[in-house]
């Protein structure tokens, strides 16, 4: 009797899960008719989420139709509303509002994450984000419209809420963007507001001085030890009482896992991620695997866990896809591991920083050389493989076996 693996999500984890499952199916000589692999997502495209802080975010999506056809992966357009793990079914609503019920033998939850917006007055009305493509496109449109607005200090001021990885990357992009839009002679001001005592706290002691020096070089201000308390049409108020006049606020402080994780019988962390077993199976739901941003998985035996990043999502996805297929084909499942961890942080038009390790993070490259690596990551490494069967399967294998 034919079996089916359903994968929720076409992001980095979902794509690699599908390719990895299809690779094992092919390796074992199993017909696609006997083991069907279906990706369920609103669109058959990979959003290049790590690049949404860049110019032209509307272009940051790679079509997957030809790749799926080359690898015998089916696609079902829609958004999953309900997971019935007890009966092996999901409910999927399409763009017309119609709901289909799909049955599975193994399910891979790779539905990703979304930007977290705390209940700050005015944030939902006046804040922007780069954590999803629609939000990034709206911000891009807003920035382009600034040139038509009356000249004022607020027009040339951008406040970035959050000084983590995303906040730093979007902030270092802004001076050049504003000058392109408003003109080289118009004063611009970019301010990072961070609740922690320093910007880039998670980067550690060795990388931080370079990051801080680069922010100073670009003229980016930092206000630390405080946070945004309220927004209105003309600016923000900090919790220390200070007001900053601005027409552009970009919120970058935090992510949360897909709310679908709450429908599964498993423990979750404070980000909503499921604490998965070593093979990425969901405890309490033996036919369900969680991967990518929906999973908290041990990367090694040193106490480190996966992060919400495409670096971890790709490898997590490859393990999850392999294991779901192996489980159905009577093959051994594999414990996920990812011992290497690197960060390549963009720092504007001509600089970046590349670090290796968890703690402490060792700086390996800075400046132009690191920027070359960042450009290669953003324009080559994280894109889908060519729509060619063997190349795609090799990509899935390397995602599971090759470390940085």
TrEMBL record:
Keywords: FAD, Flavoprotein, NAD, Oxidoreductase. Pfam families: Pyr_redox_2 (PF07992). The keyword Magnesium does not apply. One of its GO terms (molecular function) is NADH dehydrogenase activity. Gene3D superfamilies: 3.50.50.100. Residues 4-315 form the FAD/NAD(P)-binding domain. InterPro entries: FAD/NAD-bd_sf, FAD/NAD-binding_dom, NDH-2. The keyword Transcription regulation does not apply. PANTHER family: NADH DEHYDROGENASE, NADH DEHYDROGENASE-LIKE PROTEIN RV1812C. Belongs to the NADH dehydrogenase family. This is NADH dehydrogenase. It comes from Sphingopyxis flava.
């Amino acid at each position: 009797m034919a079996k089916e693996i359903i994968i929720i999500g076409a992001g980095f984890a979902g794509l690699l899960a599908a390719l990895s499952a299809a690779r094992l199916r092919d390796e074992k000589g199993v017909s696609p008719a006997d083991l069907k692999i279906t990706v369920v997502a609103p669109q058959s495209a990979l959003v290049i989420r790590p690049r949404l802080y860049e110019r032209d975010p509307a272009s940051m999506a790679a079509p997957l139709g030809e790749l799926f056809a080359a690898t015998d992966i089916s696609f079902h357009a829609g958004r999953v509303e309900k997971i019935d793990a007890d009966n092996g079914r999901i409910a999927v609503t399409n763009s017309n509002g119609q709901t289909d019920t799909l049955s599975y033998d193994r399910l891979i939850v790779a539905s990703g994450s979304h930007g977290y917006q705390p209940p700050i007055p005015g944030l939902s009305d006046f804040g922007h984000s780069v954590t999803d493509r629609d939000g990034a496109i709206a911000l891009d449109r807003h920035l382009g419209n600034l040139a038509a607005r009356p000249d004022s200090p607020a027009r040339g001021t951008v406040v970035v809420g959050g000084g983590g990885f995303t906040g730093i990357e979007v902030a270092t992009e802004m001076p050049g963007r504003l000058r392109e839009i408003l003109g080289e002679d118009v004063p611009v001001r970019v301010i990072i507001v961070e609740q922690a005592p320093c910007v880039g706290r998670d980067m550690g002691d060795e990388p931080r001085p370079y990051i801080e020096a680069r922010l100073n070089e670009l003229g980016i201000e930092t206000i630390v030890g405080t946070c945004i308390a309220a927004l209105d049409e003309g600016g923000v108020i900090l919790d220390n009482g200070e007001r900053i006049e601005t027409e552009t606020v970009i919120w970058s402080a935090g992510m949360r896992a897909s709310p679908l994780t709450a429908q599964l019988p498993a423990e979750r962390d404070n980000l909503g991620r499921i604490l998965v077993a070593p093979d990425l199976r969901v405890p309490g739901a033996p036919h369900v695997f969680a991967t990518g941003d929906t999973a908290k998985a041990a990367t090694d035996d040193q106490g480190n866990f996966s992060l919400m990043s495409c670096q971890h999502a790709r490898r997590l996805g490859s393990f999850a896809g392999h294991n779901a297929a192996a489980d159905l084909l009577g093959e051994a499942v594999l414990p996920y591991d990812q011992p290497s961890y690197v960060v390549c942080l963009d720092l504007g038009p001509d600089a970046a920083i590349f670090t290796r390790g968890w703690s402490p993070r060792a700086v390996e490259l800075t400046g132009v050389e690191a920027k070359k690596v960042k450009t290669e990551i953003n324009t080559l490494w994280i894109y889908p493989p060519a729509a060619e069967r063997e190349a795609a399967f090799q990509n899935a294998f390397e995602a599971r076996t090759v470390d940085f």
